[in-house]
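Re: that chain you flagged

S.,

Sorry for the slow reply, it's been a week of failed gels. I finally had a moment to sit down with the sequence you sent. For the record, here it is as I used it:
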Amino acid sequence: MAHSNPKLAELDPVWDRILREAEEAVADEPLLGGLVHSTLLHHPSFERALAYRVSMKLASDEMPGQLLREICDEAIRSDPEIAASARADIVATYERDAACHRFIQPLLYFKGYQAVQSYRIAHWLWTEGRRDLAYFFQMRCSEVFGVDIHPAAVIGKGIMIDHAHSIVVGETAVVGDNVSMLHSVTLGGTGKEEEDRHPKIGNGVLIGAGAKVLGNIKVGNCSRVAAGSVVLHEVPPCKTVAGVPAKIVGEAGCDQPALRMDQLLGK
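Prediction finished late last night. Pasting the structure tokens below so you have them in one place:
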């Protein structure tokens, strides 16, 4: 049985739990021992494990894993918010995704989580002026995960993207903290306009599967966008919108829709 390190549990409870779950996973399924050891147990910190996992997922003949790992290590070392946000994303996924039963699952298996962490590295590169390398990360993230997030987009922490197939987030999009979205969500523009042209998603927003939010519009804090909706106009805080084009159909239903993940519209 895995044993917790009391000091580590106090200093870094997320990493301590990941290590305990990793030991249990190896005991339960020895055939995964190589993956779990190389990805998790081999590393001295969450930061190093995160850099390794992102780099191995994005590695290709064009850019080997070792070089990508050096880039990821540099980004995470330079900006502590990357790893802090990655921890918050793990907790968010565990708390909101009914299919997530352990902290190790997002890091090992969930492409939505892995894609968001890849974006975080790309965003750091973008802010450092290393645009071509940021575009390379964006390209590989799209190829590997089917998630296309422009590295200039601004995304908060506590993000959960469930299933994460065919997610698109445009260049000037802003996503707040504690946002949940499902597969096939687009935060896009409405044409060839330049400058600020993508949505601004508030804190605590829930965006249902297949929803499209288009243009430089605000989606207010703690609102809900129903599955399949096309949102073309501003959404006030704490409201539910649905339809094509989307219209207000009621209140959000609770204080924190993104945390509750309740997608059933009230009568």
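What I noticed first: The chain has a mean pLDDT of 94.

Talk soon,
D.
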